[in-house]
Task: structure prediction
Amino acid sequence: MRLFLDTANIDEIRRAAAMGVISGVTTNPTLVAREGVDYRARVLEICDVVDGPISAECISTEADDIVAEARRVAAWHPNVVVKVPLTEPGLAAIRRLSAEGIRINTTLIFSANQALLAALAGAAYVSPFVGRLDDAGEDGMTVVSEAVRIFELFHLPTQVLAASIRSPRHVTQAALAGAHVATLPASVLFQMVRHSLTDAGIARFLADAATYSPV
Ligand code: E4P
Result:
């Protein structure tokens, strides 16, 4: 499973990229609004830091408008993947855009059926929002595992991108469910690195190493 970073904060992206384990970034209007920056300029900055799929979201709601906006967004940089929310006009737009070779990340997926529809329309990625489903009293990871299974059964090339990840445990569960990608907030990535026994082990090794001459 690949890991993407779910943020528009360039400092977090630089820090995570330096670890060498991030292969893409996902943004959305909320994440960009939080930064108070120009969307296109920030996406181009991100593309300079991470050489992989960078998702940028369309805000149009009618099919023709989504297609026009997605073409503009896709032209920002060859690594840009355009996020389109799962709606009827969104599906029509995804069909047209994918036929043009524009890679689409279908966002705001909350059921396996929505994931299937997006895959049939030609989306490159579907993003089930695990945390938001959990918040609503459902089991978000079930949507991930069902989508993975359906795509395997019917040899659909669409990748399942587990989104709205809230904890390191979610990352493990997404990997075990067969998700192709998980996109995570920087805080979750940094939590994944740490373990109290690792910290204690390093402290002990350093204390013991202090008793002899350095190599
Ligand atoms: C995915 O691409 C979305 O940007 C993101 O995962 C949404 O997560 P949230 O539910 O924490 O806003």
In short: The mean pLDDT is 97. The CA atoms of residues 106 and 126 lie 5 Å apart. The chain has one domain: 2-209.
